[in-house]
Design a protein that fits this description.
The protein is of the alpha+beta class and about 100 residues long. It has three helices and three strands. Helix content is about 45%, strand content about 15%.
């Protein structure tokens, strides 16, 4: 699924934005989010969300549409990793 979302969406708190993308992921069958932007302030906000695990990969293009930065997360490959870990911990406790 490809979406064009306003930059201001990334001003939301981390949990709200994560929930937004999880709802989209459940409806579309996806598990990863990739973001591209030309706005420096938005890029910096996206990095915060990326560290939380909402966003997998991020690119920032300068005003000439040249790739300026690429950030790739390896720790959190999909939106639902935290839930999977929690579910596995619960299963382990039940055993």
């Amino acid at each position: 699924m490809v979406l064009d979302i306003p930059n201001r969406m990334f001003n939301q708190n981390i949990e709200n934005l994560n929930g937004f993308f999880k709802n989209l992921a459940r409806n579309s069958g996806s598990t990863r989010v990739f973001i591209g932007t030309q706005d420096t302030l938005t890029y910096n906000q996206i990095l915060k969300h990326q560290k939380y695990g909402t966003i997998k990969d991020t690119v920032y293009f300068n005003n000439d549409n040249n790739l300026y930065r690429l950030e790739k997360m390896t720790k959190n490959p999909d939106l639902f990793d935290k839930e999977k870990l929690q579910k596995n911990k619960t299963k382990d406790k039940e055993r």
